[in-house]
Design brief:
Layout: H1 4-10, H2 16-25, H3 29-32, H4 34-39, E1 41-43, E2 50-52, H5 53-97, H6 102-116, E3 121-127, H7 153-158, E4 162-164, H8 168-175, E5 184-192, E6 195-203, H9 216-229
Antiparallel strand pairs: 1-2, 3-6, 4-5, 5-6
Length: 236
């Protein structure tokens, strides 16, 4: 007589991988055994009670759908924010182009970035000579041969903005004693024939500007400002 133990010993062991492999090769199994599947129950991760396999799959699909909707909403919100930033950038560019003198350019730039871009600190430093020294030579012009130029050499050469925490020497040069208050910043390179410079936006919030954040709009800001101030810088 065959006992239950003998039957168990004669049955081959089936691993989870075997089951997955079988279902991969026989997708029709779900259609041909729908009634059996509806009777299967699995533990619910929340309550611990058993629920049907079908109900569990519906729950999983619902969660995935909610996640996708959330991600879509976040993408739409990011797109909306970028569109608003682009609009503000365009308006700022038009305002700067209407400025009559460098002092008007810089004061307009500073006021606009503080008001419309929520910047805590803003500074511009140019490594070049003013074209009209008799009429204007503000603190923005550091001089063609300023020793501090080496602090920004790579950035000016690559034309790539940098976000995050700036070096202490950079902070002091750009913002003076107030530089120690800045927890994060973005430095945007300015460039032209024979000259270069930096536009820096500083924030008291350490999370405001992070390494790896998108810099396309900021790079565009550098291009616009470089074009506008070019006539006021003496070429070699």
């Amino acid at each position: 007589m065959t006992t239950q133990n003998d039957t168990n010993r004669s049955m081959p062991l089936i691993t989870a991988e075997d089951v997955v492999d079988f279902l991969d090769k026989h997708p029709e199994f779900f259609m041909e055994h729908s009634e059996s599947l509806s009777r299967l129950e699995v533990p619910h991760t929340g309550s611990g009670d058993a629920i049907s396999l079908v109900e569990r799959q519906v729950h999983v699909l619902r969660e995935q759908n909610q996640l996708i909707r959330k991600q879509l909403h976040e993408l739409i919100e990011i797109a909306r924010q970028n569109e608003e930033l682009a609009r503000r950038m365009h308006k700022l560019a038009l305002t700067l182009m209407d400025a009559a003198e460098p002092k008007d350019i810089f004061s307009t730039l500073y006021d606009n970035l503080r008001k419309n871009f929520h910047a805590d600190k803003v500074a511009v430093r140019l490594f070049g000579d003013p074209a009209f020294i008799d009429t204007f030579a503000g603190p923005e012009f550091a001089g063609k041969d300023a020793k501090e130029k080496s602090l920004f050499k790579t950035m000016i050469e690559t034309h790539e903005p940098i976000c995050g925490r700036m070096k202490q020497q950079q902070q002091v040069f750009l913002f003076g004693d107030d530089g120690n208050e800045i927890a994060s910043s973005v430095m945007v390179p300015l460039h032209g024939p024979g000259w270069g410079g930096i536009l820096s936006i500083g924030s008291f919030d350490p999370q405001r500007f992070q390494p790896g954040m998108g810099v396309e709009l900021l790079a565009n800001m550098g291009e616009v400002l470089s074009f506008i101030i070019k006539p006021w810088i003496a070429e070699p």
